[in-house]
């Protein structure tokens, strides 16, 4: 029962972050499942089955707040579904021993990207309002969908920053469109896992509590996307993902680090993490102060 309550809280927190930042539900949830010993394919399958419900709820919530560009959803979602199905069948063919560190390595890479991207650069601006082209969105969707299924998460970490970097859509539209299109990705990945590993390797009680926590958080997150500073949230989430997946890798047969080495690595990473969040808070305040100075008095 304690494990189910913890998973429900993780589902809630992960969706709260995902719905307000456009990423991290899958990465965060899968990281936890790996940390408690779930094999790689089953962990990703569990998360993606839960995401069918959470992404639907999130999409509806973002639609109600007018946070979605449906043309972008169609252009990126369909290729994303194709990539996700391919990624799910690929991961299903890996052994449990090799799958866990490989997935942790993917998640670690995504965590580093999130931390560096949001800490150092924040949210890009420029070219707002220009159309998003299919020749950019289709390959992006195909790649992001494959990474999402093989890494247990990655649709948001790959898709959201890439579209934000273009400067052609306002952040809330990017986040809403990515969340809505992830519904197609979640369905395709789930089908791929069911074909690859079957339903007997999936704990549907875990799916249910992750889903419940995510559905409760979805409307809150869609509202928060207008109020929570994405730069600060991105730094916080990126550091958490890095720390957790480094732990998995250090304990794996690939590295098998001693306890003293693990402790040193954890301390260094924790200091970097805290420093990144503090820096992001400072930069956010500078940006807000500069915007206030530029705003003419009423």
Summarize the structure.
By secondary structure, the chain is mainly alpha-helical. Helices cover about 80% and strands about 0% of the residues. The protein starts with a helix and ends with a helix.
The whole-number mean of residue pLDDT values reads 79
Element order, helices and strands?
Answer: HHHHHHHHHHH
Structural class: mainly alpha
Count the helices. How many? Answer: 11
Uncertain spans: none
Taken as a percent bin, the fraction of beta residues is under 5%
Q: What distance separates the N and C termini?
A: 56 Å
Account of the 3D structure:
Helices cover 81% and strands 0% of the residues.
What are the salient characteristics of this protein?
298 residues, mainly alpha, membrane, cell membrane
What secondary-structure arrangement, pairings included, does this model have?
Layout: H1 2-21, H2 25-35, H3 40-64, H4 70-92, H5 96-121, H6 134-151, H7 155-166, H8 171-197, H9 204-224, H10 230-251, H11 259-294
